[in-house]
Write a structure and sequence with these properties.
Keywords: ATP-binding, Hydrolase, Nucleotide-binding, Transferase. The protein is an alpha+beta fold. It has four helices and 22 strands.
Length: 327
C-alpha cells in the first residue's frame, strides 16, 4: 500500500503547486502555502517540481509506513521524528516499513512538507492534486487527511542505499526568523490617506487568530481611504493585500478567491510568499517597500540558485544510481 494516517494533526492536506488556468471559472488555485519548500523537497528526491506532498500545519500528523519509502521533510521545523528518534530535515531519508513518522513542538515556522520519492497515488483533478477544502475539491477526497486514511505510493523505493550522507544547504531557504515582508505598491495605494500610507510601511502588524489558507487578517492602526467609494471587483492573487471598510488589512493566501472588491494597498513580492506562509496567528510582521524591478531581480537570483541545486542533486543521483522505481 503506502501510508496510513494514525493521527491527522491540526490541518494536514495534499498539495502540489496549484490548479492554474481556471480562475476565470471561479476555481481557486490553492496549492502549497510555501511553494518553495515543496519545490526544494521534490528536488532533494529527484521528483518533478509539481509532485504532490503532504502539507502539515503547526501540529503535524502521525503516519504509519506500510511500505519502505524514501522521503524528505522541508519547510517549518515541527520536530519530525521516526520511531521517537529525531529525523533530519532537508535530506533524503529512508523510512522502513513498520515505522511511525510523527511531529512534536514547532521550533520555527508553521508549515512542513513531507515529500515522497515518486509521489503519492492520488488522481489529478482539473490538472492538479491540490486540496481545496472549502470547495471539497482535489487532494484526498476533497478534504484534509483524517485518522484511518490509507494512501498508496505511486512508486516503491528499489534503491540499494539506505543511508544518504548529503543534505541541502539550508541557507538556500528563507530565514524564518525574519519578520519583514517585501511588497510592491498596490493599484489603490494612492487612494489611502498619507498617514495611512506611512503607517503601512512603518507599523508592525499582528496576524489575527481569524486567519487561514484563504487569507491572513492583520491588526494594527486603521488604514483609512481619502474617501469611501465603491470599486468594481477585479482579479486578485496570492499576496494581494486588501483593505476592507474596517481598515484592517487582509493578505490573500493560497486559497484566495479569484476576484475582490476591496482596495489593494500592496502586493507581496513572490520571493517572500513562502516566508509569509510560515507565519502564524499572533506572529508580528512589517512591510518593506520595493520596486517591481527589484522583485524581479530577487526572484531571478533565487531561480538561478534553484537550477544549480537541481543540477548538483542530479549528479548525486547519477553517482549513486539509486533512483529507480517499481511501477
Amino acid at each position: 500500500m503506502g501510508i496510513k494516517i494514525i493521527k491527522a494533526g491540526m490541518l494536514t492536506t495534499i498539495q502540489d503547486l496549484g490548479r492554474y488556468g481556471l480562475q476565470r471559472y471561479g476555481m481557486a488555485v490553492s496549492g502549497a502555502m510555501d511553494s518553495y519548500a515543496l519545490l526544494l523537497g521534490n528536488s532533494i528526491l529527484g521528483n518533478a517540481d509539481n509532485e504532490a506532498a503532504i502539507e502539515c500545519t503547526v501540529l503535524g500528523p502521525i503516519i504509519y509506513f506500510e511500505q519502505t519509502q524514501l522521503i524528505t521533510v522541508t519547510g517549518a521545523n515541527l520536530s519530525p521524528k521516526v520511531d521517537g528518534q529525531s529525523l533530519p530535515m532537508w535530506k533524503p531519508v529512508l523510512i522502513e516499513a513498520g515505522s511511525l513518522l510523527s511531529f512534536g513542538r514547532p521550533n520555527s515556522g508553521c508549515r512542513a512538507y513531507i515529500c515522497f520519492q515518486g509521489g503519492l497515488d492520488i488522481p489529478k483533478l482539473l490538472g492538479s492534486r491540490s486540496t481545496y477544502s472549502k470547495g471539497q475539491v482535489g487532494g484526498w477526497k476533497g478534504r484534509p487527511l483524517q485518522e484511518g486514511d490509507r494512501i498508496a505510493f505511486r512508486h516503491c523505493y528499489k534503491g540499494k542505499d539506505s543511508l544518504f550522507r548529503w543534505s541541502m544547504d539550508p541557507s538556500l531557504y528563507p530565514d524564518l526568523s525574519t519578520n519583514v515582508i517585501r511588497v510592491m505598491d498596490g493599484p489603490q495605494l494612492p487612494c489611502f490617506e498619507s498617514a495611512a500610507q506611512k503607517s503601512f510601511f512603518s507599523d508592525v502588524f499582528t496576524i489575527s487568530n481569524n486567519s487561514d489558507r484563504m487569507g491572513y487578517r492583520l491588526t494594527s492602526k486603521r488604514l483609512r481611504l481619502t474617501e469611501q467609494k465603491e470599486l468594481l471587483s477585479t482579479a486578485v492573487t496570492f499576496g494581494s493585500i486588501q483593505v476592507p471598510p474596517d481598515g484592517n488589512a487582509i493578505v490573500l493566501m493560497a486559497d484566495h478567491p479569484t476576484t475582490g472588491g476591496y482596495p489593494v494597498i500592496a502586493q507581496v513580492a513572490t520571493i517572500d510568499l513562502p516566508l509569509l506562509a510560515q507565519k502564524g496567528p499572533n506572529n508580528r510582521i512589517s512591510f518593506e517597500r520595493i520596486s517591481l524591478d527589484e522583485a524581479h531581480d530577487l526572484l531571478k537570483k533565487q531561480h538561478t540558485q534553484f537550477k544549480k541545486l537541481k543540477r548538483a542533486i542530479a549528479l548525486k543521483y547519477e553517482k549513486t544510481a539509486y533512483h529507480r522505481f517499481e511501477l
